[in-house]
Amino acid sequence: MILTVTLNPSVDRALEVDALIRGEVLRAADSHIDPGGKGVNVSRALLANGVRSTAVVPTGGAEGEQLVDLLNAEGVDLLSVPIAGRTRSNITLAEPDGTVTKINEAGPVLSDAEFAQVSKAVLDAAANADWVVICGSLPPGPSIDAFADLCSRLVGAGSRLAVDSSGPALLAGVAAGAALVKPNREELAEAVGAEPATLGDVIEACRRLRAAGAGAVLASLGADGAILVDADGVLAGVSPVSVPRSTVGAGDALLAGFLSAGARGAAALTEGLAWGAAAVSLPGSRMPTPADLDRTHVRVTPDPDPSRPLHS
Questions:
Q1: Catalytic residue (choose from 164, 201, 230, 252)
Q2: Is 252 annotated as catalytic?
Q3: Cα-flanking dihedrals φ and ψ of residue 131, to 5°?
Q4: How far from chain centre, in Å, is Cα 3?
Q5: Domains of the chain and CATH, by start
Q6: What residues form the membrane-spanning segments (predicted)?
Q7: What is the pTM of this model?
């Protein structure tokens, strides 16, 4: 079982528009409402492909109730921790060429007592988990020290920890000795203080995170695919998408696919890239099912050319 933790979940409304024009009245061609949050998406993707997962989420207000209803409707095994604040709502505007504009609320403040309740739920459930996956932004309230303590306690208890976050939270996971971290290009640049221009820059940044404590680094690079740097070496992979619809949740699907296939080596990276590409082909934050997956377009190579430039 893979346990996911989403400290700042959301209800996501996605609208498809012909073109995003400021100051105009726009008509939506289609709309979707989905449960949101990176860890929530990982659980949804795993469930859609027959992999057991439990999601831990703090929920509050009418939006929190709606989130629980949406997750229950999808059959997600849920550990909901009640909080006083209102679960946030996010809006995604998707254009036909794949351009996505997101408007995210900050989310409710979690008190120290509420964060302690969430942490207890995570630590209790972690005993029966193959992986504990902490994803997404930190909500207002909890200190980075409190988050770092949760990561350290999980690793100290023997859990295989994966962290997909940004800024200080990502670095806290690295310092705690997370078995896996999954930054995207921007998060990787922030973590090492330098914007990567080539695959070699990405590989070097991943190696720096490993040297700082992470067991493996899976860097998602959008159109440039993904890089995996671990004790076995370096792998690069791409999976082109002919008709992109929404990039929301693609990195979460990548992580879910990678974990589902053992989280090591070319086979796991291939699976992750197939899941991520399938998510890009779907509207809103829909997660792919087995019928959506096409592994034939995935290309994974060891020791890629470090001079290859990244797309701007």
A1: 252
A2: yes
A3: -135, 145
A4: 13
A5: 2-302 (3.40.1190.20)
A6: none
A7: 0.94
